Amino acid sequence: MPQRTVLVVLFDGVQSLDVSGPVEVFAGAEQHTPGTYRVRTASLDGGPVRTSSGLTLVPDTSLADAPGPHTLLVPGGQGTRDPDTRLTDWVRAHGPRARRLVSVCTGAILLAEAGLLDGRRVTTHWAYCDKLARDHPAVEVDPAPIFVRDGQVSTSAGVTSGIDLALALVEEDLGRPAALAVARHLVVFLRRPGNQDQFSAQLAAQTARREPLRDVQQWITEHPADDLSVESLAARARLSPRHFARAFRAETGMTPGRYVDRVRLEHARRLLEDTGDGVEEISRSSGYGTPEAMRRAFVKALGAAPAEYRRRFRPVPVR
User: What does the pLDDT average to over 238-251?
Assistant: First the structure.
């Protein structure tokens, strides 16, 4: 098996976790299967860079002297907002030569500035999706998933999603057992699927201002199998169904039904990933009632039936 060089681009204002997370994954894979990865870091002149958190990183070499990479990884951080034109020029010239082009967080902005994302579906940190789409209309920006793979280009959302993407690449290169071993060593999940939302239902929805509505949000999360009809939830909030539905949407940004759907889906996904419970049991405890109802919800939202989702995405075998 040929050794793959992973070159990580460093610059002032880089986000340290965007660098260290994927580097730990590839380094861990090399320790598990020696001779598979050679990780190198490089800055414009080969000198140290100061991260956005104040840490100093010392690269292995300069970009001019860097080895030709199999995987070129561009992290994000404040330094991508107004990048050095020399850095953009280097990425523009060398990015297409890599077998894989990877960005973490706002590293996608740097790739877009270099013209390497035109016509591709990509993602980035949720706070910068609108900017990326506005500044680069030829790029198809999807703000929902934690990472997106489009041909040789892979882009990930904020910070820790770079670990998820790196694990997916290791799984592609070396197989699931190797990626699972790395994930276990790092004590992280193998692996959050790329189509998982950047936000859970609780984060995607705004927290309601009024206490009765906040209590209802919490109740939904803790009791997904209960009667969560608008009428039942309205009674809990001591509001009429019409007033409750209007107030819930105004204060959270989504309808009660949409919120309930997301909570139930997340609950079922966690049980599929983390337990050995059967699909029928999970469908009941998640509020779907029947396996068929849960199957329809999974296929609609995730493109995979529950059994297939568990086969592909459960992080560790249940013993």
Answer: 92
